[in-house]
Amino acid sequence: MGIPVSIKSLSFAYHNAKKQSIKDINGEIRDGEFLVIMGHGGAGKSTLCCAMNGIIPRFYHGDYSGNVFIAGKEATQYNPSDMARNVGLVLQDFEAQLFSTNVELEIAFGLENIGLPSFEINRRIDRYIDFIGLHGMRKADISTLSGGQKQRLAIGSVLAMEPYVVVMDEPTTDLDPLGRHDVLSLAGLLREGRRTLVMVDNEPDTAVYADQLWLMKDGEIVAQGAPDRYLADEELLVSCGVMPLQIISLFRRMNWQGKPLTVEAAMELINKNNLVQKREQIVWKDNKIFGGNDFFIEAKGLTHRYPGASCDALKDVSFGIRRGEFVAILGQNGSGKTTVAKHINRLLKPTSGELLVNGKKTTTYKQNELARLVGYVFQNPDNQIFASTVKEEVGFGLKVLGEHTKTIEKNVAEALYVTGLEGYENRSPFVLSKGERQRVAVASVLSVKPEVIILDEPTTGLDYQHQRDSLEMLKRLNKMGHTVVIITHSMWIAEEYADRCILMKDGEIINDGQTRTVFADEDKLVMASLVPSPIVRLSNRLGTKAMNVDDMVKELGR
Amino acid sequence: MNLSIYRDDKTWLHRLDPRTKLFGTTIVFILCLCFNDPFYTGSVALGVFVVALSARAQKAIWKLRYILLMLFLFSVILWPFFTSGKTVIWTWKSLKLTRESILYGMAMGFRLSTFVITGLILLATTRNEEITDGLIKMRMPYPLAFAFSTALRLVPTFAGAGATIVQAQVSRGLDLESKNIISRFGKFIPLAVPMFISAIRYTNLLAMALESRGFSPNAPRTFYYEPKMAKKDWVILCFLIVLLLVLLYMRLILGMGVIMPGRI
Q: What is the distance between the terminal CA atoms of chain A, rounded to a whole angstrom?
């Protein structure tokens, strides 16, 4: 087969774009290799994926120069159905990729397009449905699958066309940790089968197993080669918007020998070289630093059932949140996190039980009174952005609440200041980056000055630097006295920023307490199919208090 | 929330060839147009409803119960104002209510509901892909057939996106509860713009996904669920055609089932 993909000085600028999205890309992917591409938002990763598949320049027109060779033939020479047999592309948004009514028809769709006879289609469905772990679900309705299953189906339907190369563009970004695990283990199987695989993924633990790593920055490849060379380079990773591996950072800063990539490897090195003195294992008990019962938000026996559903999405949940807390709600999709949060600003009403805000049932508030107390930022900022300028967008909430122009101007200016969007007043929100649009969404909720701000997965799809920026902003807001509630799949974010965590599973709260206590109880987290980040697992094993690299260095350095 | 209408099952209607169902639906539409007497259109409606029960499509009908009820009520209430008959029941100034116009309104109510129910039966018993395949087999060009079935497929997707957008704006204080129609219209933009953008974004991704699965509208393709006309398909088609001829005979030659002559 030789060289499946070979790229020679490839540059591309989208039609009407001022600057090039990718610049002078060179590279080769050999047969059976696993390539991981990482980079910050807007670095050109997706553009590169599309170019490998010929969607650029066939579908997206623009200024194209250089060559992409697929199996020795130039990509632009293929027609779509031939290209689909050579390079399969899996996108981040699994909902948009699936358009059939059941599992087998989804897999069949591509095969019908390349004109395979019915019996061959049947044979391939049989083969690949097992491979993607959906056996016995041939006739299942796609809308009943979980996110992980959907993404595996998207991969399976591309695989069934038996392409030489499978390209996956951030296949796990929209998934919960369980779904991510699902998809990564499928990628692992592909790797074992020596299938040529290209994956865009910003989590460094994926890259650990890669044959090649390409790091992208501003449209260029800044590092290309074996991953272990670059994964230990903290500065390089951060400059490309990638979170550095915590354990490697720890070892470097402690001046310890070795670059262990996993917790187990790190423990082995620590034990072998006797790097840490034996400590007494701390027994974590909730020491109730948040004494008292002056709850600002209180759920009492909260139960919710969606119309037409056969079981309760929330089962008799009770908790209280005090003013000024920074709370993270953790759990898989479908565990009830969003359902709980939507009760707080009455997007949902309890089926039974009650939810009190400031001592009053949410159902007794007028909607606009509640909007002043509780702000809710949705996961996707594009669900709410509509105005032609940032100023107008951010002032919208105040305007509909009937505030005076002066108040609106003052509050908008403050909200823009806090979110770091000063100077953006008259820009169009639509042309901003994803991270900036997310901040506009936060600002538009902040301008109303609600006491509580709820954010549903505020960091999804953002790169490391933007995630940090968003969380630092939330931390500032929290210091200013706002109560912050985030729903997140990202363990390190909960560990580093939340004072308190509520762990949910199947509509029930299975753990609730100080973040350190919740993360010390790994068994409970495993029950919810969650795993703490490497540094916390290491910390749990060493008996330290730290939950991030900085604190760990301080604690061990004493 | 599941907004799709199709229900996976194996009733006799599910197993028919999609062409039979598409053609049959068209015939039933014409049947509805045969009469304008509520007893006759009502009988057609009843017949269609029995078919719906036999295909276990009542759930789909239940989902749209309010729309059906509104259609029926509006038609019964509004038609009498636009038609006139001989037997006057009640007059007020220039307004005149006649027995014929009320009956005509009811007939139209049954007719419209039957249209909707027939469409629902088709969608509840036929997969999207089967509709595409059926249309292609009926010589509709592939791009057109695919566009048609994709449009059907996108309705629940966009409805879901719309619900999220409404929630997102309501939680910013957008008040959709007020009754004032004029102020309501102004609230349309914060909903319409994100809706429009998400539709464009979604369609774009869909197009990319189609491309990467080797979709090209004019290339020859095969069918995994190859539709085949069986004996029962022909029997049903013959039955429907005969039924249509009989009803046309009743209306056109015997003049039965007419409340308002000269109107469809």
A: 57
Asked if A47 and A56 count as a contact pair (C-beta separation under 8 A), the reply is yes
Q: For residues A346 and A362, is the Cβ–Cβ distance under 8 A?
A: yes
pLDDT tens figures, B140-179 = 888 898 888 888 888 888 888 888 898 888 888 777 766 5
- Assigned domain for A544 exists: no
Instruction: Domain count for chain A, please give it.
Output: 2
Residues A207 and A313 in one domain: no
Q: Give the residue extent of every domain in chain B.
A: 1-127+230-264, 141-224
User: Chain B contact for A434, CB < 8 A?
Assistant: no
Query: Which range marks the domain in which residue A378 is found?
Result: 295-527
Q: How far is A397 from chain B (nearest CA, A)?
A: 5
The ipTM estimated for the assembled molecules is 0.82
E-only strand ranges, chain B: 88-92, 95-98
Torsion of CA B112, B117, B122, B123, to 10 degrees: 100
What's the CA angle centered on A356, arms A350 and A360, to 5 degrees? Answer: 120
Answer whether the bond into residue A57 is a cis peptide, omega within 30°: yes
Sheet holding A87-90, edge to edge: A87-90, A165-169, A196-200, A34-39, A212-217, A220-225
* Strand, coil or helix: A34: strand
Which three-class secondary structure state does DSSP give residue B259?
A: coil
Specify the CATH number for the domain of residue A189. 3.40.50.300
pLDDT per residue as tens digits for the range A462-488: 888 888 888 998 999 899 999 999 999
Rounded CA-CA distance A7/A22 in Å is 12
Do A322 and A180 lie in one domain? The reply is no
Q: Does A458 touch chain B (CB under 8 A)?
A: no
Residue A471 Cα, gap to closest chain B Cα (Å) = 21
Q: In what order do the strands lie in the sheet with A500-505?
A: A374-377, A452-456, A483-487, A326-330, A500-505, A508-514
Residues A234 and A329 in one domain: no
Task: Say if the Cβ atoms of A382 and B194 lie within 8 Å.
Answer: yes
Helix ranges, A330-419 (H):
337-344, 367-373, 390-400, 405-418
Q: Are residues A219 and A333 in the same domain?
A: no
Chain B CB contacts of A401 below 8 Å? 173
Do A75 and A201 fall into the same domain? yes
Residues A230, A315 share a domain:
no
User: Is A309 found in the same domain as A161?
Assistant: no
